[in-house]
Amino acid sequence: NAIVIRQTITNSGQGETGLTDGCHPGATGTITGIDTVSYQSVQTAKGFHVEGTDVASGRIDWSDGSYTIIGSTDHFAFNTTAGTTVSMEAHVDFGDNYSADGVFLGHITFHAVSHLTVTNGIITRVSFEFNHLHLFGSDCSP
To answer: Residue 120: what are its φ and ψ, rounded to 5°?
Structure first.
Protein backbone atom coordinates (compact mmCIF):
# COMPACT_ATOMS: atom_id res chain seq x y z
CA ASN A 1 0.00 0.00 0.00
CA ALA A 2 1.34 3.44 -0.93
CA ILE A 3 1.58 6.23 1.63
CA VAL A 4 0.79 9.63 0.10
CA ILE A 5 1.57 12.93 1.80
CA ARG A 6 0.61 16.32 0.36
CA GLN A 7 1.86 19.51 1.95
CA THR A 8 1.88 23.25 1.28
CA ILE A 9 4.20 25.53 3.24
CA THR A 10 4.10 29.33 2.95
CA ASN A 11 6.67 31.72 4.39
CA SER A 12 6.60 35.51 4.18
CA GLY A 13 8.18 38.54 5.73
CA GLN A 14 11.07 40.90 5.71
CA GLY A 15 14.16 39.49 4.08
CA GLU A 16 17.61 40.95 3.69
CA THR A 17 18.59 44.59 3.89
CA GLY A 18 21.65 46.34 2.47
CA LEU A 19 21.35 44.67 -0.95
CA THR A 20 23.37 46.15 -3.84
CA ASP A 21 22.80 45.82 -7.59
CA GLY A 22 24.28 47.21 -10.82
CA CYS A 23 20.87 48.56 -11.87
CA HIS A 24 20.85 50.82 -8.81
CA PRO A 25 24.40 52.17 -8.43
CA GLY A 26 25.08 53.63 -4.99
CA ALA A 27 21.68 52.52 -3.65
CA THR A 28 20.94 49.78 -1.13
CA GLY A 29 17.83 47.65 -1.13
CA THR A 30 15.46 45.86 1.21
CA ILE A 31 13.67 42.73 0.00
CA THR A 32 10.24 41.52 1.12
CA GLY A 33 8.28 38.62 -0.28
CA ILE A 34 6.41 35.38 0.03
CA ASP A 35 7.43 31.80 -0.80
CA THR A 36 5.08 28.83 -1.19
CA VAL A 37 6.25 25.23 -1.54
CA SER A 38 3.68 22.59 -2.50
CA TYR A 39 4.69 18.95 -2.82
CA GLN A 40 3.49 15.38 -2.86
CA SER A 41 5.45 12.43 -1.49
CA VAL A 42 4.54 8.86 -2.38
CA GLN A 43 6.16 6.01 -0.44
CA THR A 44 5.94 2.43 -1.70
CA ALA A 45 7.78 -0.78 -0.85
CA LYS A 46 10.28 0.12 -3.61
CA GLY A 47 11.08 3.69 -2.45
CA PHE A 48 9.93 7.29 -2.58
CA HIS A 49 8.76 9.66 -5.30
CA VAL A 50 8.55 13.35 -4.39
CA GLU A 51 7.49 16.16 -6.70
CA GLY A 52 6.45 19.73 -6.20
CA THR A 53 6.67 23.41 -6.96
CA ASP A 54 8.27 26.32 -5.13
CA VAL A 55 6.86 29.74 -6.13
CA ALA A 56 8.31 32.97 -4.72
CA SER A 57 7.39 36.59 -5.34
CA GLY A 58 8.60 39.80 -3.84
CA ARG A 59 9.83 43.32 -4.14
CA ILE A 60 13.12 45.09 -3.55
CA ASP A 61 12.79 48.73 -2.53
CA TRP A 62 15.96 50.72 -3.27
CA SER A 63 17.16 53.70 -1.24
CA ASP A 64 17.00 55.92 -4.37
CA GLY A 65 13.22 55.30 -4.61
CA SER A 66 13.41 52.82 -7.49
CA TYR A 67 12.17 49.25 -7.05
CA THR A 68 12.38 45.77 -8.52
CA ILE A 69 9.51 43.27 -8.70
CA ILE A 70 10.95 39.76 -8.46
CA GLY A 71 9.75 36.17 -8.68
CA SER A 72 10.85 32.61 -9.22
CA THR A 73 9.37 29.18 -9.88
CA ASP A 74 11.09 25.85 -9.26
CA HIS A 75 9.64 22.51 -10.33
CA PHE A 76 11.37 19.61 -8.61
CA ALA A 77 11.11 15.85 -8.49
CA PHE A 78 13.17 12.97 -7.19
CA ASN A 79 12.95 9.21 -6.92
CA THR A 80 14.78 7.08 -4.36
CA THR A 81 14.99 3.31 -4.78
CA ALA A 82 17.50 0.71 -3.53
CA GLY A 83 20.43 3.08 -2.94
CA THR A 84 19.86 5.28 -6.00
CA THR A 85 18.41 8.77 -6.05
CA VAL A 86 17.54 10.55 -9.28
CA SER A 87 16.57 14.21 -9.04
CA MET A 88 15.53 16.98 -11.43
CA GLU A 89 14.90 20.69 -10.96
CA ALA A 90 13.74 23.29 -13.47
CA HIS A 91 14.18 26.89 -12.35
CA VAL A 92 13.11 30.28 -13.72
CA ASP A 93 13.38 33.67 -12.08
CA PHE A 94 12.71 37.22 -13.18
CA GLY A 95 13.20 40.83 -12.18
CA ASP A 96 11.34 43.89 -13.43
CA ASN A 97 13.13 47.17 -12.69
CA TYR A 98 11.27 50.47 -12.30
CA SER A 99 12.48 54.01 -11.71
CA ALA A 100 11.43 55.97 -8.61
CA ASP A 101 8.52 57.47 -10.58
CA GLY A 102 7.29 54.06 -11.76
CA VAL A 103 8.74 54.04 -15.29
CA PHE A 104 9.54 50.52 -16.51
CA LEU A 105 13.29 50.15 -17.14
CA GLY A 106 13.73 46.50 -18.06
CA HIS A 107 12.88 42.85 -17.53
CA ILE A 108 15.33 40.00 -17.08
CA THR A 109 14.52 36.26 -16.95
CA PHE A 110 16.93 33.44 -16.09
CA HIS A 111 16.35 29.70 -16.72
CA ALA A 112 18.26 26.68 -15.40
CA VAL A 113 17.71 22.90 -15.34
CA SER A 114 19.61 20.29 -13.32
CA HIS A 115 19.61 16.48 -13.21
CA LEU A 116 21.53 14.42 -10.63
CA THR A 117 21.91 10.70 -10.05
CA VAL A 118 23.42 9.42 -6.80
CA THR A 119 24.10 5.70 -6.38
CA ASN A 120 25.19 4.36 -2.99
CA GLY A 121 26.27 7.85 -1.93
CA ILE A 122 28.35 8.53 -5.08
CA ILE A 123 27.29 11.03 -7.73
CA THR A 124 27.20 8.99 -10.95
CA ARG A 125 25.55 11.48 -13.33
CA VAL A 126 25.29 15.27 -13.36
CA SER A 127 23.71 17.48 -15.97
CA PHE A 128 23.29 21.26 -15.67
CA GLU A 129 21.94 23.79 -18.14
CA PHE A 130 22.50 27.38 -17.05
CA ASN A 131 22.66 30.89 -18.42
CA HIS A 132 19.51 30.90 -20.47
CA LEU A 133 19.14 34.64 -19.98
CA HIS A 134 16.45 36.75 -21.66
CA LEU A 135 16.36 40.55 -21.58
CA PHE A 136 13.70 43.08 -22.49
CA GLY A 137 14.50 46.77 -22.24
CA SER A 138 17.69 47.53 -20.33
CA ASP A 139 19.48 44.95 -18.21
CA CYS A 140 20.91 47.90 -16.22
CA SER A 141 24.39 46.36 -16.18
CA PRO A 142 27.17 48.71 -15.10
So the answer is: 50, 40
